[in-house]
Amino acid sequence: MLTRRIIPCLDVKDGRVVKGVRFEALRDAGDPVDQARTYARAGADELCFLDISASLEGRATLVRLVEQVAREVDIPFAVGGGVRSVDDAERLLRAGADKVSMNSAALADPGLITQVARLTGSQSAMVAIDAKWRDPSDPSRGWQVQSHGGTRDAGRDLLEWAREAVDRGAGELLLTSIDHDGTGKGFALEQLRAVTAAVRVPVIASGGAGTPHHFADAFEAGAAAALAASVFHFGTLSLAQVKEACAARGFPMRWPI
Description:
It contains eleven helices and twelve strands. By secondary structure, the chain is of the alpha/beta class. Strand 5, helix 4 and strand 6 form a beta-alpha-beta unit. The protein is globular. Helix 1 packs parallel to helix 3 and helix 9 packs across helix 11.
């Protein structure tokens, strides 16, 4: 059985780590460089750094900050937010990112995924997908994809977009449930099962973690990794607690922590 990964997420706005509920009511959660250093030392398997306002504000990711964070960690590091071109992706990779995460720009131009995958391979091309129920009162209608930090309907069905992203070269999907984000009620397991069954690449579960067992639930639903922010940023959970709970459920974890 493959080792599962626990990934703290650094959502950054205006140079600070922030976290909200369902992408709203953002709270300050600290300095991204300090956070990255702390998580790496505490046993994080990877980090994810997302400039959450970059696409909405039409500006590039903060490359200098990426360089600072990359110097502080020795674990894989994904970076996203405002990646609109191959040049943007190349700058991030040169700044120290191991993976580039694409979202809104990939929806606007799916060919960007293929171009980025050609830079260093599909393992460096991550597509982030923010999705929510199309109609919460009628689950049979499935999920719709949102863009620009969850503020716009992208006009795409979740499963169709997930398949296309992989076909175009994505080596990994970061799947965030807007309905579950920041609620602490657990990951969107039905959504996870549907996506992991539809694609052949690793899927990272995001949105809703509240207890150590929620991470194990995500792995049972097919996730290769589970990402969280507020439960780690505000001290609700530790990486050690999460890994111990997942190991107890039979999922191999990277040790020591």
